[in-house]
Each structure stands twice: as structure tokens, then as C-alpha cells.
Fold:
Amino acid sequence: MSSSGQTRLLGSVVTLDKGKPPIQHPYLGPDAELYLTPEYLRGNAGGELAKPSANAVRVSDGETIILWDGSNAGEIFRARNGVLASTMSRAHHIDSFDKDYFFYALKKWENYLKGQTSGSGIPHVDKEVLYKIKLFEPFKPEQIKIAKILSTADRAIEQTEALIAKQQRIKTGLMQDLLTRGIDDQGNLRSEETHEFKDSPLGRIPVGWDILIIKDCLASVDPAMRSGPFGSALRKDELAVSGIPLLGIDNIFPEDFRRNYTRFVPPRKARQLARYLVRPRDIMITIMGTVGRCCVVPDDIGEALSSKHVWTISLDPLKYSAALACYQVNYSPWVLSHFAQDEQGGIMGAIKSETIRTTRLPVPPRNEQRVIEEYLACMNADHTALKVHLAKLRSLKTALMQDLLTGKRRVTALLAKPEEAST
Structure:
């Protein structure tokens, strides 16, 4: 192979070894071995032990694994030492490929493989499609350098994901404290050792706080709560490709309003539906799909209509902060428990208006609400900045894979020793 590299069909460089069902799983006997499942390799489950069959496929750290059967068929994993589950196959490549480079080269085709599965029942990887995949094969020192670059990007992504997860845990715990104990005049969290507390329907709260239901916190506007329009008030054939955005569940995420508008109402029709216009600082709660997600409508929303898939609520800012209400809906156990009253058949259905109206909230004095809101806003800004950074890292890795794994960009100049380029 020349130093410029070549393109190879996957079928010419790989041998597939499909995993076999174990004799017993789970199994805790003396001859038990680690059983590699997709969930374990994703990092979503602990390792399980099994008694392997006589023809079990044993794999080693770093080998490339393909999920062969199931709804995610085509997913690519790095192996760990263990026995391969029957739904996966090892892709054993020829020696001219570096192990880590080969993993990334095949990982680049993951979405393509997922979209080209076959089978009318349980989908599985189409071997003919797999074998026709083209891999760029530069000389081996360059493969090693490319794999190191992509591994560095992976580590940065994993570290950022871990930091976000840790920050979320801290945020959730601190939020519970702030929403039930509050902050005293010295900027410290209250405790029952240093401050007076009292009993309430929501548990112990500071003396000086109240408990109100949402109905008593509504703004003096008509309507202060709305969901709709329903039925013939707005038909699908009346929607347009431009006009006034119609907001739905795809715009509402926990503390995150997303402007990915996909549905519009013509201005003339929107005027007929004026009662469903959203207002800045309204809170919106999803009632379809993932029920109970809540965010605050941004100040610069302009004209937009709410849909039948959300509850839109206007609160009196002198009585209760929209941001704090949003946090309560997303995280407070008493709100989640109250909403669960609308569960039907084990699946939470649309939240009824009476359930919303009777939702209890702990109410600090308004000046303390502002302090809590500012504290949480700063914490959220840090969290959002990390998520933006993570998105950039993922985008960078995607671009690197596209450039480096196709030969579009070469890394020969980065090799440590010039003579390696002629190896």
C-alpha cells in the first residue's frame, strides 16, 4: 500500500463472528464469565455473568462490535473482555488496520447501517449492505495518529458529559433546598437549627412563607389558563408554511423554550384565535408525549399561539415568580405527585384544568422569590454554557471523522518522526 492510502470494501477486510446464547444467564457459578449486552456496552447497565456455551464468542477490550438484531441494529460498540451476546457480532479485521482506527472508520457508517436494516419482523443488519461499505485505509502510522485525535475528542466529550451530569445532580438537590427552605437575609440556606419553621400541607416550610394554589396566583387576564384550540376551531388544513407560530410539545422542554417552529397559522386565522395567544413570562406545560415538561415563555416571543397539547398559564408576577413555578412543575415531588392524579392505565394522560388550578406551591415573600430566582438563573446559565460546549465538541468530532476517515484531510505532517511516513 502506498503512503497515499487506498479505499477498501469492508467485505474484503473483515470476518464476522456472531455471538451465541449462553447456557445459563444470569449465572454465578465458578465458571461464570462476563456477558456483554448492548446496555452494558452503552454504559447503561452493570455487567452480568453467564455460563457460556461451548462455541461462545469471546472478545477483547477495544475490538469492534456490531449490534446485529433489534430496533438499534447497526449500532457500533467497542468491546470489553467478555462473552458476546447473541444479538451482536464481532467485526474481526485484517492486520493492516489499526484496531482503534477501524472502530472509528466503521462507527462513521453507524447511522447509514441503522437506516438500511432488513427483516419484516425483528430488524437486522443487511450483510450485503455492510460488506459494500467503503473504508479509507491510509498507512498504519497515520491510522494510529487519526485514532488518537478522535480518542482525544471522545475523552473531552465524556468529561463534559460527566460534568453536566454532576452539575445536574447538584442543581436538583440545591433546587429542592431553595424551594423548601429558601435563603435568609445573609444569603444562607435556612435550616431548622438556626431558623423557625412550621408545618404545612407540603411539609415543613419557613415561618413567613405561605402555601397557595395556582388558581390564587393567576394574573387578572382572560383567559389566564388555556389549552386548545380544539376540533374545528383550528383544522390541520388551515395551517400554513408561514405566519404566526403554533407552539406545541416540541417547543417546551424543562426550563428551555425552543424556537424550532414547524407549524404556523395565517394572521387572519390567528386573530380569530386571539384567546390562545401566549404572553411573555407565561409558563407552558406539556400534556402530550412526555407530560409535565415546563418552561417560561421568553420576553421577546412576539405573536405566537399555544396549542391543545400544552397548558399555558399567566401568573400574577406580584404573587408568584413564573420561573419558580416552572422549577416547581419540573422538579418538586409534590407537584409531580399531584399531576399523577391524572394517570390512566399506568400512562399519564392530559393534565386536567382542575389539577392545574389546585396545584399547591410554597410561597416565599416576593423579595425572597427574586433572590432565589436570580440564584437559580446563574446556576442554569452555567449549565447551559456546558451544554453548548458539549454540542460544539460533538460537532467538532463529526467534522473530524468526516475529514480524517475519508482522506479529505491528512495528518502525515503530525507524525512524530518523518521516517514513519515512508514505513
User: Anything to note?
Assistant: The chain has three domains: 6-137, 139-189+365-423, 210-363.
